[in-house]
Structure formats: structure tokens, C-alpha cells
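Quick question, first post here. What does this chain look like in 3D?
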Amino acid sequence: MYVNFGGFVPISTVDWRGRAACTVFLRGCPARCFYCHNAALQGGEDLRDTGEVIAMIRGSRTVAGAVVFSGGEPTLQGPALIHLAAAARTMGLSVGLHTNGMFPRVIENLLRERLVDMVALDVKTTWERYDDLLGVAAVGAVEQSLALCRRAKAEGSLETCEIVVTLFRGREGDLASIAEAACGLALVLQQGVAEGFDPLTRQELEAAAAPLGRKVRIRTREDGEVGYDPEQELFR
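> Answer (accepted):
Ran it through. C-alpha cells below.
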């Protein structure tokens, strides 16, 4: 079996909070978000035998207790992703997934087979604006993926699920409806960074989060990741 390979990081402490993980990047993504930080992986081709990628993962076991699959959009390559996740499981590794949620059937299969422990699901905007932002019909699929993750988390078959929102200046008003959709799941606010945009500061992201009345995690270039609780201000 072959996989369209995007890259490999032997050890990362940022792709899964609190865990040392190796990260596998898979190429290809149907969305074209203007702020994508891995735009080079949206297309292109580098076909590798999955055995080669499994060997990379195995080689990181001395320092990493987990593997994260990212992209691109890793669920675009469903059969290869499931094969790699199953191989990681046999090594005793925890498995994480960064996804835009556009392929809910793949997520459903991973959850059903107990092949994933952590899902970081990007929810990019309000449902009404979704398809315009991504440039493809995606909203129904993402809503389905969110429902699958929420159910798995509630049932205890998914250890960790966080909803990641990349927030840009002028779109702070979108946050309330996104947070409502993410009710019951961890919420991460990520500073939107793109050419021509003035990024929100950590303090401005805190102000946007305050009316939600819930804990969130905030990520910025300047301060890294911090926890925010409207009742206690910052927490670590």
C-alpha cells in the first residue's frame, strides 16, 4: 500500500499537548483556506510505501510515546491512514489526528476500531460561511465529524477531542455560535496569521473568549499556548 507522504517529525511537543509524539504529514487537501500554514502540502505527490513510514514511526519509539497524523488532510487518504494508525497501535503508541473533518466516514472507522485517542478538529467559521471560506461543499461533513467526536468523547471511546478555531480580526462575533457547536469539548482559540491581516493579540483573544463563560486555550506567536478562564483570568 502506498501513501502520498508529506513529511515526518521524529519528536514534537506541540502537536499533542502534554505528549511527546512523532508527527506524520500526509499530502493532499480539498480545501483552500487562505491562511493554511501547510499550503505546500495541499497538493503534490510523493508516493511512499506505508512500510517506509511505519519504519519511521518505529524509529521514534525511544523518544515518542505517540504518533500524530496531520497534513494536508490525512483523512483524505483513508485506507492508508487506517493502516498506519493500526500499525502504530501494535507498537503500543497512542494515536492523534489533526483534521478538518471533511471525511467523516474515515473518522467514524478510526473511532469504531479504537485506532485514535486524540482528535483536534478544525472548525473554521460559522456554518453559514463554511463553504464560501473553504471553496468546497464541506459544512455537512464537518458537522457530522463533530457529532461523531462528541458522541465518542461522551461514551469514553475517545480520550481527547479539542475544537480548534483560527480567529481573525473582525470575525470575533463568530465565536459564540462556534463555541455552542463545540459544547462539551475542549476549545482552542488560535491566532489567525496571514498576509494583510493584523493578528489579534492574546489579550484581544481573551476578550473575545470572555463572554463564552468557559475555559479555553489560547495560542499566539508571542505567548505560545496559555489557558484562559474568565473566572480566574489566566491558568496554566
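The chain is about 30% helix and 30% strand.
Residues 11 and 22 are 5 Å apart (CA to CA).
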